[in-house]
Write a structure and sequence with these properties.
This protein has 8 helices and 4 strands, in the order E-H-E-H-H-H-H-H-H-E-E-H. It is globular, with a radius of gyration of 16 Å. Helix 2 runs antiparallel to helix 3, helix 2 packs parallel to helix 5 and helix 2 crosses helix 6. The N and C termini lie close together (8 Å). The protein is 56% helix and 12% strand. It has 169 residues and is α+β, with helices and mostly antiparallel strands. A 4-stranded mixed β-sheet has the order 2-1-3-4, sandwiched between helices.
Amino acid sequence: MSDSSPAPVLDVWCELQCPDCRTALDDLRALRARYGDRLELRLRHFPLEKHKHAFAAAQAAEEALEQGKGWEYVEAVLGRVEELDRAGESFLVEVARELGLDAEEFDTALIDGRHILIVDADQAEGKAIGVTSTPTYVIDGERLDGGKGQEGLRERIEEIADRLLAKNP
């Protein structure tokens, strides 16, 4: 295979008002540190109805991706889930401002709903493949449910990623 073979993809079905997703950040950081660009971590949205700000947060994360700081934004919001619980959308805009993103644009994006279709599509796809809680990981067709506990999940992801990378050095 040529050098241009695409990196294996790890879909991370996540919800920004979810304490379990915050716990998963350490695993995601470790995976990024270990694989860098050799493994593509793709944020997928699965806002849960029980969290009233999760849908707005998913849209905000999309805006952050568009402005070039997607994962940084996700980590910043997840790190302060309690503030999101309390303050809702104003907190989402505040985090954007803290990261040096265009906060006005965030505000507008949340009002005009420009990212709703992406969030809806992710949620529909998640339901179709059996995602019921967050975080859920999908790599090489295997679904790993972190909502029920994250023990051993990173090792399993690394096992699969290593196998895929060995096939396409």
